[in-house]
Amino acid sequence: MKTIFITGASSGIGKATAKLFQSKGWHVIATMRNPEKETALTQLENITVLPLDVTNVKQIASTVATAVSLAKIDVVVNNAGYGLMSSLEALTEDNIVKQVDTNFLGTVRVTKAFIPYFRERKSGLFINVTSIGGHTGFPFTSIYNGTKWAVEGWSECLSIELSMFGVGVKTVAPSATNTNLFSHHSDVAPLPYYEAVEKKMLGMIKPASLPEEIADVIYEAATDNKDQLRYFAGKSSQAIYDRRMEIGAEASRKEIKSIYFDGLKT
After folding, report:
1. Which of 7, 70, 97, 164 has the fewest beta carbons closer than 10 A?
2. Active-site option among 82, 117, 144, 194
3. Is 117 a catalytic residue?
4. Hey, which CATH number is domain 3-237, 3.40.50.10490, 3.40.710.10, 3.40.50.720, 3.10.20.30?
């Protein structure tokens, strides 16, 4: 029986991924900040729930040690993260640091903790959940997108670096998904200068995909045995990426500006 280790498994894509792999006969180690609140996953056979806050270095070390003592880990899915939507001007230092600490550094820390284990075994796979926002720009998500661009670039470097040990690295980039991704929007006090465009953007975000659809792509990435770095997931992710590739980065940037700003007064 293969084993998968998942961060951020309390809801959304992480929970859907845990359920899918369990249904496929895998042993799942599902981690989350507050495992005592979890009720659904604990009822399923072959799912182990462990505590993990990816911003807590000591807890990462202890949870990874516990995980590798329980089973032979085959795949690590770095899914923990959240979205922060606001103008950069409105964000506090705390807003920015927490976003980078969770989305980027959290992924780096968990991966680093598992590398010696995979290196010694000369096998293993990291799957990092990013976003289509890690491939193109949108207004009011500069720090969120920045973390996802960072994970994409870092993953590409690491995929080359770890290949010498037979260890794989892949990314899965969802489009807008029906999750609580941007639930932290209320953490930031909006500024009047951006209000009209921000409202327009919020109205344009239409979660078209279910977490289960993203989990299907994660399963594909985990099991297809392909030397492939990037996977696009969700109903619009591939289309957005293909459009950017078709017209080029500069034309794509101008097109997005026109979508959000044409007809608006500032």
Report:
1. 164
2. 144
3. no
4. 3.40.50.720
